[in-house]
Automatic annotation (TrEMBL), chain A:
Biased composition (Polar residues): 23-44
GO CC annotation terms, alphabetical: CatSper complex
Protein name: Catsper channel auxiliary subunit zeta
Any GO BP: sperm capacitation
Basic and acidic residues bias spans: 84-93
Gene: CATSPERZ
Native source species: Bos taurus
Disordered: annotated span: 1-130
Superkingdom of origin: Eukaryota
Record InterPro entries: CATSPERZ (IPR039019)
From TrEMBL, chain B:
Highest taxon, organism lineage: Eukaryota
PANTHER family xref list: EF-HAND CALCIUM-BINDING DOMAIN-CONTAINING PROTEIN 9 (PTHR47065)
Protein's recorded name: EF-hand calcium-binding domain-containing protein 9 isoform X1
Species, as recorded: Bos indicus (Zebu)
Gene field: EFCAB9
Amino acid sequence: MEGKPLKASAKSSSHHGSGRSSLQDIRNMWTTATLSQPKLNVQLPTVREDSELEDVSVSGKTLWSYDQKAGHDAEGGWEASDGGEDKDSFKPEEPEELELGGDSSQGSRLEEDDSKTDNEKPSSVSSLNISRHTPHRAYWVEQQSRLPLPLTELMENEALEILTEALRSYQSEIGRDHSLTKQLQRYIEGLKRRRNRRLQVLAV
Amino acid sequence: MVARVFGLKGSIMKLKQGSFLWYLYLDKLYCLLSVRNVKALVEYFHLLDVHHKKTLNGQYFHVLFYHFLHHVTDLTRNQITVVFNMLDWNTVGEIGFDQFYMLVCILLAQENHLEEQFIFRHSRPVFELLDLDGELKIGPDHLHMYNFLFNIKKQQLRDLYYNFDITGDRLLNYKEFKLFTIFSMDKYQESQKAEKEKKKEKAVLKKKLSQVNESQRESLLGIQPFESISNYNC
């Protein structure tokens, strides 16, 4: 069954005190499921989305794709493959490492038994099955080696704000026509497009 | 005086509530981020690495780095410059992920009042950060300059140089600095213990008070409720 619902960041922020007494709320931002999920045999359409954040000439493109493979293990689902550099940084964590923050001092281990999923689907999937599983896409994204969606959103929104301010500085310091300024501008636009696309997918 | 000139004196740094860093937290024992937190931080760093150099550039007034810190903390421009110069230990004018990680740990340690613990656990890297000149010794100016990050109080600073400057050269080498961190850690743990005991006593007192109030209320009422019904029936 589905894990605990993801809580909006707005809720967590209200609990935050100076003494950090509400760590439990912070943890709610994160998934409560382990990464050791049962094998996913659920068929999902293959989608490739090239990152538009980077110039064609720049190396290290990030290709976001998700493939569904029969007998896929818990790492499957969403994959971020780039020029090869960052792949290692996205290795799935061991279940023990999902204990957030400190071990003895923080205490509670957040785990979730979510083993009873429907993973007996044939490889050729009807559109009906796809639509039935589409709402779970966000959930499965999180169950893999990706970050929780609320956190990803928070990061991207904040990065956008920072970079927008930086763009103003670039424009005033080195001019609008400078290559770095243009690169930053394109990057920001790409980030916005990616964010909008993700919001559309979630809204479906 | 140096700190005052650079506008570095003043309140301790605060993280912006609701910012991404605000949601991260250090392990209280080792003062490091968990693997999951690091993973999130890597993603965040990559988002900010606009020019794909795996660094936040320092050119053009370290724009990206400045705007990042300006957005998530209440540090002034001068303080941000000081932090940048501290972290740019290779003097390449850029901040890589290692330095970024170090900075985030320092910010979180301060935000969570774990400065003593952090300096104790990571005395060597902290010492190297403070040793701007690379002379393997730090003077009081260095420590005071970074007061807004490490929250070393004036009195502590005085004690530090009075008690731990064993060589008497008014500078601290690493061993002297390490002794200081052990000493402050002991003091910190004692104060934590004392605080805990105080809280316990308060809780016990509260409980006793509530029990006393309960019994007083009962005695004022005179009889128990079930007795009143039986009396009525009679």
